[in-house]
């Protein structure tokens, strides 16, 4: 019973009910104010919500969701709106539940390395809260100074340090959620070992389709004694890729291992001027080593040797916080910097087995030539998570469609070599039509079972993740809802 | 529609159908042969299956399950039968699907650090297969030389090295499963970053209630350059507990950190004679440090200093493989050794926040006094995973019931301090009545939703994990199946 046809709603009683829960200040309905909310970081998709609500508590969210259920109105949760797959894109005639007033740190338990936060808390605040005591929160998306933990949970966000420490799902111990029907549930707990089905794991990355997280218990880690960032400068992508493989094969697990190509390097230097990146390099690797002083010192030497052996022209190492931050600042600004190279850019997010790096980069170059768009490559090389940036001008008629086709070809390439169509940005509105390339009808069907038991009216973030005939045409038709006995009962 | 009442089946056509799939040799039905299968490692629960089948392929399992569905016969998967919570305990009039003929290593991909195995493959074979190339598989239950990977997946097994490296779920990348209705699905994939709902995570630890894993893709890790095991000898449990906290607080993450009390120490020395454990110690800590040589050398010193500071009488370190194995052999034999202290023993498995260690051990001692049973304590101290061994004589009428009561009190204690009723052994048949102490009716209900969509007839391992009125009385009555709109449709 997913919402598929255009509906007309009588908004008056709905708004009145919302105002009764939140007061007039908590309900935004003026057209000009709603514009802010018509897209997230994926700006090529836009849809104005009918109304925006700004709750402050779990109970308020539960009440709001119950009102949505009563009137069968779709609702979408939104944190800071920095997502890159359109996961927080409103649907037509929908309610946008924005968590940006829910920014309390609810509990800090350093002894047990846990912190409990509301969903609107900004990612970098978590580390700021605990860093004085020598702890940090590992997942660090490039948008970490603005993105929210709630959004990170929804999209299972990654970051440059996820190679060694894992993505968001590896750091969420427990969740309080409001289900799509307005019930309050506790998933997981305060210790990682919880019996029964791992619903915390299912919820993380479910992109708002299984409910809204209202309290999040995160694992925090002890800061390393020493951190060093190496910059290795290569004249070929193959040499950089071989170094990545060799570093991992040597048993070194860097905190992060990132590759940037020549286009990205120059874009970053033009915009943020780190003055650290060699503009004539074909590719650079940024390798962060963390651990004990002695360990970092030794691994630094080993990484440098591996890069040199593979033909690096130069390897420099920075241990002082200022230079380290500068090196990362460039990497983290890479997407924004691409915006200066052309009027528009489209960020893709795919994963490949590390061993296929060189082949896939050659194929991406071939796509660039074939379609006539420059493609900058910035990626989490250690875990094979690519972020090709396709540069284009949206003012040219038909350009967006063509660029989306290139993006699609890149995803199909990732699937072909045994990878994935999303590493950390989620599927959202953007990639749902590619889910059928990655999963069989039966596999997708089994995910739908879970969606439907939690989200029986289909009101929680409809039109996301899963392909539908309306939006994806034939790709979605392959998914028959009658295949399994368990589903016929719906 | 879970199976709740006693049913009579006409086994003739069922057996005939099984024989058509497997041949006569693949179907075991002689009473005396079936005795082997009437319990797993939890020997206090016994139930003979009606028939045992021995498939060799995914397709055969799918066919067998379809036959079970056709005749509405419950079926239970079993690997090596070493589980300690009765997860592989047959139900009355059930089919036991035993995977011990499915022992092929299907694929080894060292470059991408993956291995694909059949479910009957023995845990320690995985490491044996890849160790020559410098890799290993991290989860290592004490039963690793006999337990199967399929069983590990079902129970989300742990082991002494899970403190640093995580339990089974952290090492399973993908699964081929046969669903409870006989469909073949692929969950997860070859890279960790898979979009959509994390069904792999839900399946791992679902104890056979969501289907049977038939191919398992595991992550393998690079072996550490150096490994050292420290043995610290304490005259009080508090001092050992304080050392555990201080080691973690210092930012050291040992490969494993185990505590054994005086009773366990002596039981182990009586039986396996490591000649390493001090018989007069109140508690010992075994701390394994792994990593680079320099790192291990430094952390060894730091751990020793912390233990000494907390009053350790003696700290010894072993880096040579022989002594290291001897130290671990004692720990891994602790359960079996307890069997020599008294006619019977009951192993409990609970988790507590590390900071509550001293308090909880005092309370366990009080329970021991109150009920008059000796309790030996052996546990994964680093992650707060307790394994109290309650020593008793099952020949004494009523003893088992009393011991189960003690075990239940320990679980309630774990929940009270914010922990969990299972760290690594699963819920199975043994602990389902305690699920209501840990989860609210709504939380349990949401797990049931998932069970019911995958397992609509309730045939896959019924009577496990979830409390039912028939077996748990009032505890289960709290769970109403009508609470949520999504469930009324079943």
UniProtKB/TrEMBL annotation, chains A, B:
Q: What is its EC number?
A: 1.1.99.14
Q: Which organism is it from?
A: Nodularia harveyana UHCC-0300
The family database entries (Gene3D superfamilies) matched by this protein are listed as: 3.30.465.10, 3.30.70.2740, Vanillyl-alcohol Oxidase, Chain A, domain 4
Q: What UniProt keywords apply to this chain's record, in alphabetical order?
A: FAD, Flavoprotein, Oxidoreductase
InterPro entries (UniProt xref): FAD-bd_oxidored_4_C (IPR004113), FAD-bd_PCMH (IPR016166), FAD-bd_PCMH-like_sf (IPR036318), FAD-bd_PCMH_sub2 (IPR016169), FAD-linked_Oxase-like_C (IPR016164), FAD-linked_OxidoTrans_Type4 (IPR051914), GlcD (IPR004490), Oxid_FAD_bind_N (IPR006094)
The cofactor required is:
FAD
Question: What name does this protein carry?
Answer: Glycolate oxidase subunit GlcD
* Designated gene of the protein: glcD
Domain (FAD-binding PCMH-type): give its ranges: 45-223
- State one molecular function term (GO): glycolate dehydrogenase activity
Pfam family for this entry, one: FAD-oxidase_C
């Amino acid at each position: 019973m997913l919402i598929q046809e255009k509906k007309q709603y009588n908004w008056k009683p709905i708004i009145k009910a919302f105002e009764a829960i939140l007061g007039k200040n908590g309900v935004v309905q003026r057209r000009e104010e709603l514009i802010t909310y018509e897209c997230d970081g994926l700006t090529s998709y836009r849809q104005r919500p009918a109304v925006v609500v700004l709750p402050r508590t779990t109970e308020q969210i539960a009440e709001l969701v119950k009102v949505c259920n009563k009137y069968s109105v779709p609702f979408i949760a939104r944190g800071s709106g920095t997502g890159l797959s359109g996961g927080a894109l409103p649907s037509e005639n929908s309610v946008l539940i924005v968590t940006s007033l829910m920014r309390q740190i609810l509990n800090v338990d350093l002894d047990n390395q846990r912190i409990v936060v509301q969903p609107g808390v900004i990612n970098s605040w978590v580390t700021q809260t605990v860093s004085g005591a020598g702890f940090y929160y590992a997942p660090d998306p490039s948008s970490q100074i603005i993105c929210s933990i709630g959004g990170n949970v929804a999209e299972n966000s990654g970051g440059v340090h996820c190679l060694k420490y894992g993505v968001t799902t590896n750091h969420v111990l427990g969740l309080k959620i409001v289900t799509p029907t307005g019930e309050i549930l506790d998933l997981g707990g305060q210790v990682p070992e919880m019996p029964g089905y791992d619903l915390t794991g299912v919820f993380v990355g479910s992109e708002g389709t299984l409910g809204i997280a209202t309290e999040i218990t995160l694992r925090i880690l002890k800061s390393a004694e020493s951190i060093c960032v190496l910059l290795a400068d290569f004249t070929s992508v193959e040499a950089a890729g071989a170094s990545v493989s060799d570093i991992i094969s040597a048993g070194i697990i860097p905190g992060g291992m990132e590759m940037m190509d020549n286009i990205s390097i120059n874009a970053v230097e033009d915009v943020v001027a780190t003055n650290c990146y060699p503009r004539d390099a074909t590719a650079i690797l940024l390798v962060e080593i963390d651990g004990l002083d002695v360990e970092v010192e030794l691994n630094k030497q080993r990484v440098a040797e591996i890069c040199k052996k593979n033909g690096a022209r130069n390897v420099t190492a920075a241990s002082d916080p200022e230079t380290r931050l500068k090196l990362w600042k460039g990497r983290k600004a890479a997407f924004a910097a691409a915006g200066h190279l052309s009027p528009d850019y489209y960020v893709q997010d795919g994963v490949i087995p590390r061993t296929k790096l060189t082949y896939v980069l050659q194929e991406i170059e071939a796509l660039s030539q074939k379609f006539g768009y420059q493609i900058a490559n910035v990626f989490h090389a250690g875990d094979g998570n690519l972020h090709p940036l396709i540069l284009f001008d949206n003012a040219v008629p038909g350009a967006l469609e063509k660029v989306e086709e290139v993006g699609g070809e890149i995803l199909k390439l990732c699937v072909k070599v045994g990878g994935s169509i999303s590493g950390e940005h989620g599927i959202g509105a953007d990639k749902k039509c590619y889910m059928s390339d990655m999963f069989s009808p039966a596999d997708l069907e089994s995910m739908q079972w879970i969606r439907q038991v939690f989200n029986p009216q289909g009101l929680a973030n409809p039109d996301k993740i899963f392909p539908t005939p309306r939006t994806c045409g034939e790709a979605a038709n392959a998914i028959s809802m009658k295949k399994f006995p368990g589903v016929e009962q719906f």
